[in-house]
Every structure is written in C-alpha cells, then in structure tokens.
Amino acid sequence: MLATTRFVERAMMQRCATRRATTTRSATRARAATTTRWTTTRATTTKTTTTTTTRWTTTTTTTTTTTRRGATVAGRARGEGGDGKGKKEKNAYGATVRLPQTTFEMRANSVQKEPKMQAWWAERGVYERLRAREDGAAFTLHDGPPYANGDLHIGHALNKILKDFVNRWEMMNGKRVRYVPGWDCHGLPIELKVLQSMDAEARKALTPIKLRYKAKAFAMKTVASQREQFKRYGIWADWDEPYMTLLPEYEAAQLEVFGKMFLNGHIYRGEKPVHWSPSSMTALAEAELEYPEGHVSQSIYVQFPVSDVPESTPSELKALLDGASLAVWTTTPWTMPANAAVAVNAKLDYSVCRVESTGATLVVAEGLREAVASKLETTLTTLGTFKGQDFENVQYQHPFYERKSPVIIGGEYITTEAGTGLVHTAPGHGQDDYISGMKYGLPLYSPVDNAGLFTAEAGSDLEGKDVLGDGNVLCIEKLTSAGALLKQEAYNHKYPYDWRTKKPTIFRATEQWFASVEGFREKALSELDKLEFIPESGSKRMRPMVSGRADWCISRQRAWGVPIPAFYHKDTNEVLMDESIITHFTEIVRTRGTDAWWELEVEDLLPEQHKAKANDYVRGSDTMDVWFDSGSSWAGVVQSRGLSFPADMYLEGSDQHRGWFQSSLLTGVASTGQAPYKKILTHGFVLDEKGYKMSKSLGNVIDPRTVIEGGKNQKTEPGYGADTLRLWVASTDYTGDVSIGMNIIKQTSEAYRKLRGTIRFLMGVLDDFKPTEGVAYESLPAFEKYILSRLDATMQEIETSYKSHEYSRVVAAITSFTTFLSNVYLDVSKDKLYIGEQNDIKRRACQTVVSAIVERLIAAIAPLTPHMAEEAFQALPYDKPGDAISVFIAGWPSRPSTWASIDADEVKFWDSFLEIRDTVNKVLEDSRNAKLLGASLEAKITLHCSDADFVARLNREEIARDLRYLFIVSQVEVVTSSDAATAGCDFKSIVDVPGAGTVSVGVARASGAKCARCWNFSNLVGVDAKHATLCERCVPIVNASHPDLVVAAPAPAS
Questions:
Q1: Under DSSP, is residue 476 helix (H, G, I), strand (E, B) or coil?
Q2: What angle do CA 798, 804, 810 make, to 5 degrees?
Q3: CA torsion through residues 195, 197, 201, 206, sign
Q4: What is the distance between the alpha carbons of residues 281 and 790, in angstroms, rounded to a whole number?
C-alpha cells in the first residue's frame, strides 16, 4: 500500500514492529496483551515527530520506524520514497488514498478533560433526565453511608465505583434510577476529632450541646470534602440532596423505627454484660469490634477448694471431694473478684485426681487430664470418674472473699478443647456466664467502673486499679498469696478491641437499652432465605451471625448521637417512656433536630399528658448505637424519599455482613416484618501489590486522588484519570480481596490506551459514512456476516455479565473482541477502507459493520469508563442514534436477530479459515525472518485443504476473489494437492485444522511488479499509459477520483 497509509497505521495506532503469528486462533487471542497490532510497543530505530492539524488530532504525535506486513520504513510516511538518506521524493498517489479522520483524540488527557465532561453532564442535566424518566421501572441501589471522618481511601473508591457500574447499567436499560448518597455523621470518632482539636481547659468547659454543635460542624465539613472526591470518580448521584444521619428528617424517621420496635415489644432496658470500651467509656456492638493479631493475655490455672458437698451427691464422689479442689482456667484473671460459680457440662466425664507431685486432689475433665498434667508438669492419677451432673451444687470457697459459690450446669460452650473442663463463671463479665447465671439466680458481680477501674466492691487493695493493667497483675498476686494459683503463662489469642481507639475492651454488666433479637430472630432468618447474595457465600456467612446473635445493645454513653427518648425518676430511677413520648419527641426532632433534647426543658420534651411529671423526672443521657442510625436508613431514605421499597440492592464490603446489612435487617424485620433489601452484593478489601494490608507505616497506601490527579511530581507520579481507576475496579474479581499498586495502575492505563486506540481507529474509518448509506444484512459479504455473528455473541456475553455483576467478565469479553478486531477484521479491512473506491459496496459493507461495532463497543464500556464512552459518542461522525444527547440517554443498543441467524456450518467454516490464516502468518513470519520476503504483500500463497466441503466453500466466488486480502498477500492459489501447494517453496507448513482437514501451505515470492498505490504485486502493473506504476485495480479508481492526474513512468536506473 501507499506509504502514507503505512505512516498513519504506525503513527496513529502505534502498531507493533512485527506481527507475531501462531498456528492457532487461541494463540492469536492470547497475543492481545503484547501484539495488538497498533497499540503495543514501538520500535526505536528512528523517530519522526509530526504535527497534524486536520485529520487525526491537533496535538503533536511522535512516530517510530517499524517494519511490518506490507510496509517498510516510516520515511515514506508522507507519501515519500527513498532509503532514508537525503531528501525523499513525494509519492504522487498520496492524495488518492482515504485515510482515517476523527475528532476523537488518541491522547486521553484525562486529568483535564474528565472534569470538563462531568461539567458537560451537569449542564445538560443528563443524570437528572434519566432519574426523572417516566417510561421505566424504578431501580434503587441504597447507599451504605461512609463515615464522615477524614479523607476517602481506595476502599471507598472500590465501593462507590462498583455502585456506579450497577446504576449506569440499569439506566442504560431503561430503569428509573435515583441514587441518594449518604453519610454516617454521629458517634465517637467525630467526638474524638472535636476533643483532639481542643486544649484541656476548653474540654473541661465543654457541655454536651456545645460538643454537638462542634461535632456537627466537623461532620458537615467532612461531608463536603468527601462529596467532591466521590464526584471526581465519575459517580452519578443526588449530590445536592444527599442523606446524612444528622439531618432532622432522618433523625425523625429513625425515632419512628425505634418507636415501632418499642411498641412491638422488642426494646427493653436491663443490666447485662456488654462489650465495654474503657478507652471510649461506652458500650459497643459486635460490629464495633475488631480482633487484631498478636494479642497476648496472661492465662492462669486456679484451684478453688471444695467447702460443702450436698447430700444428693453420690457417696463415692462425696468421699473423694473431701479436701479436694476444683481446677479452672481463664485468660482474664481480673474477673476473679466477680466469680460467682464454676460451670460444668452435665454430659462430660470429670475425674477426681491425685496430684502426684504434691498429694493434693484436683477435679478436671477426664478428656483434659493429661493436658492439664502436662501444663502443671506433674502426673494426675484418676481416683474416680463421674458425670458433670453429679457435681451440681457442690460448694467451694472463693480465694479472695468470705463467700461460697456453687458448681452449676452450663451449656454446650463447655468442651474439652482447652482449659480444665470446669469454667470460671462471672455472670457480670461474660455472655455465656450471664445466661447460665440467670438459670441459677446468681449475683451479677461487676466491680468495674466506666473507665475500666476496679470499684470499692472489689476491695480496698484493688480499688482504682486498671483491670487490663495493674489490677490484672494484682489479681494474679492475690491468687498466689492465697495458694490458689496452679500455673501462669502467656497466651496468644484473638481478643476484642475497640475499632475506633484500637484498645482492648472488656465484658461488663451495665444498665443498657437492648433490642430483643430473640423476639424476631426466626422471622429475620426466613427473610434472609428470600434474598439473593452475590457471591452466594454471603448467605453462609451472614446466616450464622443472625442465628447466633445475642440481644443487641443499642445504647451508648455519648453525647453526639440520637438520644433515646427516655426519662428517669429522680428518686427511684424508674423509666418513663411510652408511645406518646416517642411520638411527641419525634415531631420536635422533625423540625428542630435532636439538639432539642439538650436545648429544651424536660416539660417541653414531654407530651401534654405527662407534663405534670416534669419536676420528678430527668432526661436520659444515652444515645443510640450508630449502627441503629445507619440501620434505619431504609426508613430515613428509601421510604421517606419515595424510592422503591424494599431496595433492589445493598452493596458494601464483606465486613458489613455483621454491620450495616445486619443492623438494617434487624430494624427492618422488627418494625415492618420484612428485610429492607432484595439483593446483597459484597466486595473484599483492597491490599497492596504484594497482598499486604495497606498501612501508612509500611508506605504502601494508594491514594485514589493520586491515581486520578497525579502526585506532587507529575513525572514520577502522573495522573491517570478516573476512567483508569474505574477500569481497575472493573478488571478485579471484587468478590475476594483485590490488589492495587502503581505497577497495576500502569498496566491498567496501558489497557485503557489500547482500548482507546481501537475505538479511535473504528471512528476514523467512518468519517465519510452515514447510516443511511449502510448495506442491508442480506447484501453483506459472508465474512461481514460472520463478524456480526461474533459481535452478537460478544454483546450477549457482555449483557449476561452485566446482569450478574461480573464486571471482570465484561472487560474480558471486550478485550477478547477488540483483540480479534485488531488482529483480524480491521487488519484485513484496511485495503478496502483506504484503497478501494469510496462508494464501493465492499467498503460500505465494511463501514456498516464497523458502525455497528463502534456503537455497541461505546455502549459496552459506558458503565465502566463513562468519560471515554461519552467522548467517543459525541465524536461519532453522523447523527447520534435516536438523536440522543448522551450515550446514556441513547441506552443499550439492540441486537438484531439476523446477526445470530448465520448458518452454523458457515460459522465453522470461518473458524477453520482463521486457523488456516494463523498457519499462513506463521509461514510468512518464517520467510521474513529468513529474508526471503520483506512485507507480506511480496508473497504468494499456495494452499491445499483435504476437506472437499471446506474447499467448495473456499472457492465460492465472493470468497475466492478476496482471499489475497484476507491473507494480506498479493496472490493466493488454491491447488488440488498437498505436493502442489508446497512444491518449490522453501517455507511451508502442513497442519491438521478441524473442519478443513489436512492443510498444506507454501510461500513464494509474488510475480509481477509492485503497485505504487496499494503496494500489491501484479502482472498488470503499467498497462495504463497515464499511470505506469499502478495495478489494474487502482487505475480506474484514480482515473475516477483524479481524472487530471498523470504520473509518468520513472526513469530507468542508470
């Protein structure tokens, strides 16, 4: 072909130096990563810089010297010939070749252009139009609120971008999508931020209401910052009308949920052991805990001397217990002052043993006897073995106090997996202990205050000491002094920490407000069974959490939150709260917000029928758990704003199975009897490239703003734009943990660039095409019909993957198809697009197919890389489909049924043909490497296939005449024998191809001369006097388009 053509292919598409051919089509597809024809590595032999201002781009483009099939050197890029030395001659036929033209630039310039595209959408109200459409069913993806505390991290980006994928797909398929973003604004972390900003004196003078004012200001400032960061990701949402848990209308809806649960009998106040954070001085829910690696406790083995044995005890056991002790094990020595019982499993065997090293008698579970003996470095000899139930009501002496406690029957939590099989029971400091203690009416000892310090109840020597510090040490010393300590050792295990302060928590009995999960657990489980989980493993993860959940402690001892509208009698502490109080306060909140709880007098907070009691009661100081806040969002947002309920989807990280998903389920079922969502989709966490958790101390944190905008040094940390970040999200298997790092981002950027290059080429060859000039399907050449069948299959795969939220499969399908286009269809089509007559039916047929491809490719990438998709859509060189102003308003394109109607045998034929083409490419590559050929157009192919049916199809006129273009060689001859195909050929190949039989391929030099315009070799070059260097195909084309052009024959070489 003409040198100008070759230049465009190299300069604009950055095609690789040499085509790597293999013998199978699968290998062709595998080459996508490195050999996509115009988008891979560039050779560096010679660089030429040119500025183009009319055809492809208005920016400076750097091109490189390459060698490829049908091309020689970049020196001919402007239609010039020569050997690269001295001044080059102009090619007279440069103006007769049609080259690609498009306004869609190769350089994305995302850092500058993406904000402009976002402004373009906003100015035209594209999202608002889609949100307000009346012809589509409603779709609601309800946003789980991020916490309004600090900047966003890469996990936020993963989450919000996945949500945007879902919403944009639904929009393009005609759904009415309104996405309301939200923020969780109450709670301790914001309180701490406020307190940290103040000096000690200011903190002392801080009243609850002043703290609330400051906390609100901090939250609002953070929301404003995070909102702009989210918008830069290209997220479409109601950014001007977000929900925040601090808004009065939201707080009122939350109180209505609380009221319904209260009236349904699911809210109560009681004294129970709860997770307590001494560092935060508040109760915590399970979802507010974390279990870091590396926690070490001091575990102890302790003996409690038996003091009394009831008459009901078997006589043999009664005799053996005289002077015996009960051996217990615990990892919380500080709970010894609260010991109220020793629990055993009624069904386990327990042995009374002699300690051979001391002569003492100990009771241990028989299944743990040898393990305990090993720990104590002695031998335990069994004197008698009895069932646990035989020990019930045996009394023992507490080692610290003058009190006796019983042996009780515990539950299935008592096993022989660790310890002694006898469990130290402190009902004030453990859930299982509490349940067992309730059965026996045990006292609820809990001599620990809000700060985690022992109270006077523990004794004067322990009072004021830290239960997790010096108090724990002193308890061990007291056991030693009492002769009760058998063994002390370090024990590494999982232990709950406050997720905010990162400090250990304790179990502590306090008066709290609870939601009685037991009252609606079965209904919650039945609702779970109706849901769709993505991935399916989410159901197996969440169900046990709900089935085994204890009552939910919903009260917190903090000021920044929604108050529990309860009043307490000044003398008796009796609670005053009923429907009228909750309703009255809810209406106050609806207009004034929850600050009113602290701003108004008690009399004003009480409804008319209770105002006379105002002087006898004080308002409560407890606020609701922030998980109750966010767990009520289905009422505060989905129902309150008229969105479809239950929501179609909740989408969050997998940690929300025990967080927001669960709190939303519990509030929904307890107040309305149903789950507030239909589908739960979860994603994993983001790790670094080596699979490590991100940490500032490790220096492996990836800031999404740096990925998008670049760092301080733009040379070392360039900005890649939001679409590259989004393409990374789409490429991951988000159902598990995902990795990110700058190397991964660079690879993603390269994939983005290749995709952009493919779209640009497709757009460029449509510059003179109008859909009205398209060729009807029935009139398309056979190969074009085959291409449309592949397009149809690809779009079907993409649609299926979008519907199942498998975005990495979407990316894979797009990549596979664009690789096929690059390596096959677009490669073989360049001749007809560039060289053929403008209105030739083959050229128009090709453009018809390319138009169908580009419109669907733009749509396919739109949910994932919306900025690039919209830019490409706006650059379409003809009227937009449906006169739509945006690719998203245009919607998802149809798949004409005719595309899939191609005969199955025809598909098999082309599949086999492409495998043969791979074989031909391999032989051509070998011949080039041996210097037999330069470009592939210098070749003639001889071909034989043993399958007669295949040969018959191959010899069809429309295919036979185009074989040389399909193989990108100058001449092709189909012969009648394998010997004829390979005779006289230095380079050949014989392979078996399914559907074609045994295939023999031979390569030789083409006969004739080289056409100066199309670069094909022909025996008829020079037959026209006006154009002595043109072939028989190019002469009429040039005469028709440039009738006055005459090019004299070149002077013979001297």
A1: helix
A2: 30
A3: negative
A4: 64
